[in-house]
Amino acid sequence: MATRRALVRIGLNAGLDGLLAAGAYLLARWLVGAEDVLGPWWALPWAAAALLLAGVPFRLSVQYWRFAGTQDLLALAAASVAAAAVFPVGLREGGAALPGPSFPVAHALALIVLLAAPRLAYRLSQEGRGQTQGGAAVLLVGAGEGSDLFLRALAAEAAAPFFVLGLVSTGRAQTGRRINGQPILGGLAELPAVLARLREEGRLPGTLVVTDPALSGTSLAQVMAVAEQEGVRVASAPRLTSLDPAKGAEKGLQLAPVAIEDLLNRPQVRLDREGMARLVQGRRVLVTGAGGSIGSELARQVAALGPAKLVLVDSGEFALWQIDLELGEAAPLVPREAVIADVRDEARIRDVFERARPELVFHAAALKHVPLVEANPAEGLLTNALGTRHVADAARAAGAAAMVLISTDKAVNPTSVMGASKRLAEMYCQALDIHGRAQGGMRCITVRFGNVLGSTGSVVPLFQRQLARGGPLTVTHPDMQRYFMTVREAVGLVLQASVVGALDSSPDFLRQGGIFVLDMGEPVKISDLARNMIRLAGLRPDVDIEIRYTGLRPGEKLFEELFHGREPAVPIGHDGLLMATPRTADAAIVGRAIDEIATAARGGNVRLSLALLGRQIPEFAHNAVPDSGSARA
User: Fold this and answer.
1) 250: pLDDT confidence band, cut at 50, 70 and 90?
2) Which residues touch 513 (CB under 8 Å, ≥6 apart)?
3) 224-233, 512-521, 614-623 — which is least confidently predicted?
4) Tens digit of pLDDT for each residue in 469-495?
5) What is the DSSP letter of 17?
6) Which CATH number applies to 273-628: 3.40.50.970, 3.40.1280.10, 3.90.25.10, 3.40.50.720?
7) Hey, which residues are catalytic here?
């Protein structure tokens, strides 16, 4: 049915173009002053046929008149010139002479004018109808390609859902200019004045539509704050790839909520995709904690790089099943194996590694929730410290070329058992890496970063659940700050660090036990994050939704750190990556300490295990009973 309707439209286009071509022939004869304007009768159908033949290479008959654009008009002009060149040949073959030497030029111009005029008139009439049919009043934020595409997609709607009042530019010196007939009312700095003026005129928009994808971070937060004062919602335009005017009538133009990630103000980092492919392609890769937020994203990105085999290891059955099912659909050609195993079970881990013989290991398995590990310290020590030793020793015994440890900013000047246990894991991997680089053995690369948006235990899903219940949003302390990045970005940088760390020409700092640290940008106040999430939901902080402060929890710090006070950040020449050089120790010494701590933890002697942990990490200032007034910075 759809094909028949399309053929009918093409036939109608061809018929109309043929009639216009016949009219262009008559107009051209009149323009050159021919005595007989009509000429021989058979010249009229030949004029139509010449255009249709010349228009085939330019797909003239399949053009959408409603969406006629620059490319369509250029194709129309080329077809007109070609038709004007072909027409005299047939005229001479029929025994008729040209009305004058300038006739081909006049014919081409007449064709261009008569063919283009109705197309443009039809498009303008459709755009005018879309703008006059009402819809919700919106103000566009952005005056570039995004706004142009949005306006054209809106014009394609049979019944426009929005009425555009104008645009606010994110650049400078654009006020007073127009895009698709819509005025630029001011810049971002003038947004409060623009909204105040529209409110006085009784034309205050219901929504600010962000069309500039580059608008993010502080600038976007300021837009949201201004909109909140005026009671105006903020939304995002659809992605540029989905703003296809030719599909507007079918899909409908729908706005999207602003993503919390857009408020992080994180610049795009250029990654060495070729280097990642060389690292992974054709190799056997094993990921521990594959069902977690970091591990599952590692599995996705590794699968896309074409490993010889991907082994997914996790102690949780459901989480492991989910990522295995997802990869079976997204990367069915990648051989993979899902293995249930606990990193605390040394015999099981060794068996898994001996059978899989991985060449590259990503160790993401860990207990990461600070208060839960404080309540269950033995489990945190056994998983994070002893489990890391089991994985590293098994990887080395199986002949792996490199192992990558996923660490945390909470390992710096730790105040929690979770942070201290991860610092102990870092120390063991540092020692193995120094030995491996000196003796030509396994590289043990450690990557440290902060919080990941939307990960398991993250504050963002918690706030989303609290918003769904109508609040309140609970924040531990008004001054609490954390570093954030998206899970996809974090894993991309982990792979980037792995590429650098696996090279023989790695920075000298790695030979001294250096640790990769992801550039997390500026820290974010959790209270600001809560307020922005309330605004993104179209509500008002402290009015519609309460923010309630509950006090620091055991093990928490007000401010996280990425570097120890005595380990300055060292740039290594790769965007998004820095290096820390914390103190190191001998692998045998750290290994024995881990065994002693594990023995005490298994025996239920938590006090002893923590005392032994403090001996290895003298900067460990356990904040088991936090005091908000003296919380460590």
Assistant:
1) very low
2) 430, 431, 433, 434, 581, 582, 583, 584
3) 512-521
4) 888 888 888 888 776 778 888 898 899
5) H
6) 3.40.50.720
7) 410
Residue 385 carries which DSSP code? I
Amino acid at 294: I
Helices (H) then strands (E): counts for the chain: 22, 22
Going by the DSSP 8-state scheme, the letter that residue 242 receives in this structure is G
Residue at token pair 């040209």: 98
CATH number of 134-258: 3.40.50.720
What is the C-alpha separation between 379 and 370, in angstroms, rounded? 12
Q: Which two tokens stand for residue 363?
A: 């160790």
DSSP assignment of 515-578 equals: EEEE---S-EEHHHHHHHHHHHTT--BTTTB-EEE--PPTT--SB--SS-TTS--EE-SSTTEE
Which residue type, as a one-letter code, is found at position 540?
R
Give residues with Cβ within 8 angstroms of 206, minimum separation 6. 136, 137, 138, 232, 233
Q: Where are the domains of the chain?
A: 2-127, 134-258, 273-628
- pTM for the structure as a whole: 0.69
Euclidean distance between CA atoms 591 and 428, whole angstroms: 7
- The CA-CA-CA angle for residues 522, 523, 525, to 5°, reads 135
CA atoms within 13 A on the CB side of 452: 25
Compute φ and ψ for 363, nearest 5 degrees.
-100, 100
Amino acid at 175: T
Q: Which two tokens stand for residue 510?
A: 């790695």
For residue 532, what are its two tokens? Answer: 């922005």
Q: Is residue 197's pLDDT more than 60?
A: yes
pLDDT of 247 reads: 46
Phi and psi for 579 in degrees, rounded to 5?
A: -135, 135
299 compared with 581, residue with greater pLDDT? 299
* Residue labelled with tokens 């001054």: 479
